Amino acid sequence: MPVHQEKKVAQERKHKIIQNDTKASQGQWGRAWEVDWFSLASILFLLMFAPLIVYYFIMSCDQYQCSLTDPLLDLLTGNKHLSDIWNKTPMLTYRAAAIYSLWVTFQVVLYVFLPDFCHKFLPGYVGGVQEGAVTPAGVINKYEINGLQAWIITHVLWFANASCFHLFSPTIIFDNWIPLLWCANILGYAVSTFAMIKGYFFPTNAKDCKFTGNFFYDYMMGIEFNPRIGKWFDFKLFFNGRPGIVAWTLINLSFAAKQQELYGEVTNSMILVNVLQGIYVLDFFWNEAWYLKTIDICHDHFGWYLGWGDCVWLPYLYTLQGLYLVYHPVQLCTAHAVGILMLGLLGYYIFRMTNHQKDLFRRTNGNCRIWGKKPEYIECSYVSRDGTKHHSKLMTSGFWGWARHFNYTGDLMGSLAYCLTCGFEHILPYFYIVYMSILLTHRCVRDEHRCWSKYGKDWKHYTAAVPYRLMPGIF
Ligand code: NDP
User: Given phi > 0 = left and psi -120 to 50 = alpha, else beta, which region is 138?
Assistant: First the structure.
């Protein structure tokens, strides 16, 4: 096609997309435009208590051998005062501040300045410059997908240090765990506050901003859809993936190193946690391009929920099993260990295959094979705000015929497996499965509400064909 014609087609495409802004019914995207009292109450609750919850869990391990009830009992019986607990809490140190600053700077450098080369030699891996979904304002953002590369480089350096250079101890993360918590909080609050100010004064795309007029709601759920600095530094992709998720596996390795230092061995439960969570993290980076099409990137705005959540909640609460095992080294019997491994791998398989089936189905517009057969689906349509009718398909084959969110079920099975590695002496390590159940059930309801308002009666046909959400016959 001649260049001028190509330009015209591109312009027409852009024009069509921008029309789709008005087209894109606002209800189909992200958070609400108006705040109801329940959302406001939940948000105020989280803003006040989520940082305390994280502190309580980590302090319980540090001062009470991971007992969640003992600190409360001590306080209620007057055995201890809040000030006693606080005075025993390690404070922010220069060392932790230096480690954390170096860590975040290193991840920024890997993210911004190192274009992906993994896709050039890893067959099947999709990296390099990729397009995200259309935003409500009709923008298609480009992303440099180089998370796998960042993860590999970081871990190669970690192992090189542990085995050859010995510049720092592999227990460094555990040894500075609470001082680092203060650093993570400072970054989490700084980035959320910056995102809020940026949304008001210099948004990346003003048309993609949402204001409710309620300060707390906007702070928590975010104003800007895709805040960026420069062409490539995308807040959502960076903070979602790194530093939190790259750190996840390093944190677990540091906990394993601490076990080795304290007890002279690494227990099979610690190895299981490292392996199962390692698979989950690697899967995330292997599929980073796919991740651009998930709810986090396609629908959520960037506020405290993502900014603080990625800096603090994720690295501190998703790694509780490894932390617990440092204080309570559990050696599982072979049958128990194999059972947990099987549950974790089965959960991972279901999670990955379900996501893969939908991705394949949508990419090929249904022209593919699911479990060896042509997929069945329900034709659906939705009308955008400018009155244009659009068509889509909802698959009823494969795992998507078993339940409407079987990918979440797989995720939950994997989450349960991590917790079971810790035995049954304390409830603290089971926080993760409780939290994931709440998160994914809420997400399921949120997503279904959105789909129902998008597809109307077609969604009803789909829910009649696939009546269960997470578990066939149960829910
Ligand atoms: P999904 O990948 O399930 O995507 C939901 C969307 O898929 C719907 O909005 C709809 O979008 C489309 N869809 C729904 N049903 C069908 C169907 N039958 N056929 C085709 N398309 C359909 O949701 P998420 O983005 O929430 O989850 C992605 C993964 O990330 C999950 O596996 C989840 O477990 C995991 N996750 C993990 C978290 C963690 O903290 N560990 C947190 C959140 C998610 P459309 O409008 O296009 O029709």
Answer: left
Mutation test of ligand 1: which of 282, 288, 407, 445 has the most ligand atoms closer than 8 Å to its C-beta? 407
Domain edge (last residue) among 280, 307, 331? 331
Query: Which two structure tokens, joined as six digits, stand for 360?
Result: 């394949």
Place of tokens 């939950």: 412
Query: Residue 389: is its pLDDT beyond 70?
Result: yes
| Phi/psi at 229 (5° precision) | -120, 125
How many CB atoms neighbour CB 110 within 10 A?
A: 18
Domain-ending residue, one of 303, 331, 359: 331
> How far is residue 31's CA from residue 303's CA, in Å, rounded to a whole number?
11
Tell me the per-residue pLDDT of 131-176, one tens digit each, with 9 for 90 and over: 988 787 778 889 999 999 999 999 999 999 999 999 999 999 999 9
Q: Which residues line ligand 1 (CB under 6 A)?
A: 294-295, 351, 355, 358, 361-362, 392, 394-395, 400, 405, 407-408, 411, 443, 447, 451, 454
Confirm whether 253 is domain-assigned: yes
The per-residue pLDDT for 31 is 58
Instruction: For residue 37, count other CB atoms closer than 10 A to its CB.
Output: 7
Which residues constitute the domain of residue 321? 90-331
The Cα–Cα gap between 83 and 87 comes to 6
Domain presence at residue 74: no
Whether 288 is in a domain gets the answer yes
